[in-house]
Amino acid sequence: MVRHRGHPRPAARSGAGAVGLIAALLALGLPGLAPPVAAAPLERAEALEFLVQSACLDPAGQPIPGRLPFDPGCDRRRPMRAGEALPWRKTDWPGLAHIATQPEGYMASDALLGNLQGREAAIQTFDFGGGSAAFGRFDPASDGGQVAVLIAGRAELAVTQDGGRPGQLQWFLSPDCRPGAPAAAGWLVFGTEVPTGWWGQAVARLRIAPASDACPTGFDQALTRWRRERIPMPVRFHDDPRAREVPMDVIVSEHFGGPTVAEGAHLERFWYARGLGMVRWERWEDPARNPRVKERAEWFAGTARCRPAPFSERPAPGWGLVDCRSWTNFRRPRAGEVLHSTGWPGQR
């Protein structure tokens, strides 16, 4: 759903495909991939740890500037809240053509604990920098975000805003929508139980609407799949851009544009890392539905904006990766600098 300047969402795969994927990853020797285990319900606080980024705390309980959750010495931490100064930020990886001139990438993305219609929510911002846009402020021509809420143990995306549409929020509503009531979120991210070693899945029903209670009369179906694994993710830093890998506890979520893979036409796939929030997004498309997929996928591969990562693979033969962002390019504050998010979406 990250569509800002060509920014998409996640998808799903069949049970047989999941078994084959596990075998392939184990054959590659990727660390942390356990055999299939029964899925236990996620407690609310634990689920929020995947949706919201964390600050590492000193003995006095204050955030430590520049220290990340996977750094040594992050023994105590708490979720970062909207409106507070940030001890670190994450931005996307620049492409090869811009790595020297834009080492901080094109888009910063903060995942902060906030509020949506009186409900605790995870607010993810999309903050472009470069040209007329600047990091750390809201630029209406480019910036936006999306908001996730926890409903009955499920993580759901409730609303998004595309860059260039100031004030125009798009709500993802489910059949539970009622006029005059808070938004009944419809974009399923993961269910109450998140398995390891196999995929949980459901077919969600949702429709985009212009207001939180503008209840649609019909709904689309989206095959959604999710799983939790400990996997190595590619990482770089603004002050030390050498590429490296860091093991992370990750929930991978897939959202297809239909009730099955064959009917889906496209897939949006997300990686939510514990303590970091969403760290990667991909969009895959079926060339049978769009004849320009092959051309677009070849162009995008040439940018090298997204390094290979576990579970980043074709959802079906011939499908092409047409867009991706990887927010594992980390920004520590410089001496005397205070980092802030954009403040999107304001009071809702």
What can you see in these coordinates?
The chain has 348 residues and is mainly beta. The chain has one domain. It has 4 helices and 17 strands. The chain has a 15-stranded mixed beta sheet that branches. Strand 8 (154-161) and strand 9 form a beta hairpin. The longest helix is centred in the N-terminal third of the chain and has 14 residues, at 15-28. The chain is globular. Mean pLDDT is 89; it is low at 4-32.
Helix amount: 10-25%
The low-confidence runs, each spanning 5 or more residues with pLDDT under 50, are 4-32
Total number of helices: 4
Intertermini distance: 20 Å
Features:
348 residues; 4 helices; 35% strand; single chain; globular; two-stranded antiparallel ribbon
What's this model, at a glance?
This protein is mainly β.
